[in-house]
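Run folding on both entries below.
>entry_1
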Amino acid sequence: MKSTTQSDRIIFGLKVRQLRQGKQLSFADLSKLANVSVSYLNEIEKGKKYPKEDKIIALSEALGVPYDQLVSSELDSSLAPVTELLQSNFLNELPLDMFGIELAKVVEIIASAPSRVGAFISTLLEISRNYALKDEHFYFAALRSYLELHDNFFPELEEKVDEFKKQYNLPPDKPVAGAVLKVILETEFGYIVKENGLIGLEELQHMRSVFLPNKKELLLNESLSGAQKTFQYGKEIAFNFLKLEERAGTSSLLKPKTFEEVLNHSKAIYFSVALRVPLKAFVDEVAGFFDSSQWSEKGLLNLLDHYEASPEIIYHRLTNVLPKFFGIKKIYFLRFTYDQTEERYKIDRELHLSYRHPPHSNSLSEHYCRRWIAVSLLKELQERQDSGEEVNAIARAQRSHYAHTGEEYLNLTIARPGHPGQGQNVSVTIGMLIDKKLKKLVKFLDDSFIQTRTVNRTCERCSVEDCSDRVADPVVIQRRQKLNKIQQVIQSLDEN
């Protein structure tokens, strides 16, 4: 008999369950008729076991169906959504086990009420097709959920970083220099590093690096800064030291084939960031930064200089340490890009811890609130560049009060020029919900130099009147108001 897949086991179990219930047989009844133990029968119906041929024959006779019908992969029409689900990558490719969820259990829930739950799943699949959502959208969504579930702190990766430093006699409390990482890559892992490896390859100029596994060559973009090269070296070391075999060859994921590839990419980033920003030293520095009674742009930018790191690396490390060491768990991270040719703001990375916070990406082509410091700082950076000023990075703090939810966040934003040749500027933001814990932790929270603004998600969904920063009409609010008026008129007609 050919080897069986998880889908085979699930489908077989569902068919046995449906046939048993159709004949109004209990587990004990079918167990006696087929000479199969109740516990084994229970495992079969849950999709955990696939019986041998003699047991299948006994079950088919007990259930009154032909052998071929019982082992076929076709399900009854009432379970059609389950078949579609198992044949698609919607659940099969998601890392349900990481969340402690068994695929068989999910399918069992669907099968228990196929006309309702199945219709819901079919709707999700239809929506995904209509919006051209591909597997990678689900992979990245699953990754974000996984990171949020663990507060984006992974002790096992921190331990691996310590192990690596100890193995190569590197100082535990200092950033590892890029030159050292390059030597380790070349001597220990057999890499050939070409620092100008992408020259003449116009299609790859937006890439920071490309790895050629057959040649073991790491091709770096010639425009990378020292810090960016160090980060790429750290990632490559992570793939090798952590033995992460399933990986992409490009610095950013273009079209991931599996979730494992996405997860390994995330682990490599975490490892590289931790190499550059030692945990204990960074926690102490952040504590000192928060303990200052005055907001300081210089103080925030000094963190970049101290670790010779990009804003993304520093903010990635902040999302690691704020929940774990400061108890600040209601936070988000956003990365905005501003395309200078299209004049368009776009969120290309985000992370929300505890729950989904008000500022987040919008796939409906709506206009993000221009009062957000993440957006207004990009505008300031562009204006300074247009005036001929050479700007490396600027930082601002803002207390953002959301008009409709009443929530208020402390946002710390850094804007910088993007990757050379891309025609973009980039801003990264850490937002922290202002509550009693944050008020006690951040001594400069009430500094008068911190701008306070009433904000919203997008212009289309904002009812704030006389907003000089508005770039689009509040059409969503207007539609809602129109619908309310229609309902009020109908109600008045019914009452009179």
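>entry_2
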Amino acid sequence: MSSQNKINKAKLIDGPVGPLLIKLTVPMIWGLFAIMTFNLVDTIFIGQLGTTHLAAISFTFPVIMVVTNLAIGLGIGTSSAVARAVGEHDLTKIQNLSIGALILSLAVVGTCLILGLLTVDPLFRLIGANEEQMVLIKDYINVWYGGMIFLVVPMVGNYIIRATGDMLWPGIIMIISSLLNLILDPILIFGMFGFPRMEIKGAAVATVIAWVFTFFASSFILYFREKFITLRLPRFSTLVDAWKSIAHVAFPAAGTHMIVPVGAGIIMSMVALFGEEAVAAFGAASRVEMFAFIIFLAMSAITGPFVGQNMGAGRFDRILHGLRLSYRFCLYFGLFEAVLLALFAGPIMGLFDDNPVVIHYGQMFLYIIPVAYFAHGIIFIASGVFNGSGHPVPAVIISVARMFVLFIPTAFILKNIYGLTGIFAAYTITTITVGGIAAAWSYRFILKRA
């Protein structure tokens, strides 16, 4: 009965929309901020080892993003299904969905591990890594692959917790995990307190240890507090039903999210043509970009449960009001970030590398690409609307059109005319265009169902 009461309290269909969205978003901001420091801290410490090390870790970003975004897709699909079950007050259904999601996550991890280990050499050489960088990449990525289970499973588990409207505990878990990584990184990278100097491999080991904490913490909450997972496995037919319900949203959502790292890999291959310094700058500036997206990603994360529960209750007026508030915020805050990053581009890049060429390329990135950050936020939230409603196809179309129909052709054209600046300009122009389309489409999508 206590679990049932918690589900009832977590419903998102009552109360003023603006304050509710803020209440849900703030814990997510802190949690995502903590997670982003994983990558930023790794990059800063590894950058102290030299430009070659920084370039090597930069080459791993697209691959890491593919796995991470696959996990996010599974989490979104699970959250969408669980949120609707929460509205039905069906604890048994929630348990079946939760157990099914975690089993599916294990299967995905196993597949990614095998594929990843088999493709290390051809994949990173295809992106543009040289022999010296390949040695460093293998030191990092092989450990990272080995610890994937401790990334994917708790990530999906945290999405299950969020589906009830609880954004606090997932945030706390991510903050503690990030602090562990912050403490362990310098110890293992540089060899402190009697530990051997592991350099780039040490960053991967520190990350995996921190993930282990999230694995046990989220499992503890799901089992003991929420009682969403049990030691009793559902019947296979029940698991199949759960997988179908999750996959209906999860795999399109995963595809949508993985388009971004695939595009990042393509961008990286184009940037690599301009030298190691350009790759290092792109990798470092991309880490800064991740921090700039924190609030937008937090808003996107709470959009799915908010839309799912209110759509189930027929409260379309609340969804429309939430969209108006969210898109307006994206516009104002995104433009504020663009100005801020342009003003401090030099000092920011100096944190990663003292190479003047790296700093120059990084400044170029931070002058041009942040102009479109407001549109990124709109795209994130629009995708949350479609996924949360159980209709993921529009989000897929938006992502495919943005990357493959608009960006890549534009980037190739502008690269030949303006060089690296042209690549960055193409990304900004196409993102703003698609952001406007996403805003209009998501608003009309809800309006037609009101």
